[in-house]
């Protein structure tokens, strides 16, 4: 039914998607499933953890020296 049944959760309406409910539940548990396994030149693992996969993807770019450049598609945006 895509509703949160977590004790003391104030959200009453169901989520439209199961994935949204799962993301919401992580807010209750604090579990960070997505782990950076990057090893530096000394063999030390980064081990940073994230609750969402896209945040790990963004983080991994720091190891590669890349930057995500966000560009507005609106034609009048500067």
UniProtKB/TrEMBL annotation:
Nucleus is among the record's keywords: no
GO CC terms, sorted: nucleus
Domain C2H2-type: 34-68
Keyword Repeat listed: yes
One GO MF term: DNA-binding transcription factor activity, RNA polymerase II-specific
Keywords: Metal-binding, Repeat, Zinc, Zinc-finger
One Gene Ontology biological process: positive regulation of transcription by RNA polymerase II
Protein name: C2H2-type domain-containing protein
């Amino acid at each position: 039914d895509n509703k949160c049944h977590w004790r003391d959760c104030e959200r009453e309406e169901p989520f439209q998607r199961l994935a949204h409910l799962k993301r919401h539940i992580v807010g209750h548990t604090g579990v960070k499933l997505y782990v950076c396994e990057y090893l530096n030149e000394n063999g030390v693992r980064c081990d940073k953890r994230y609750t969402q996969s896209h945040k790990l993807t963004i983080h991994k770019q720091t190891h590669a020296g890349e930057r995500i450049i966000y560009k507005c598609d609106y034609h009048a945006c500067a």
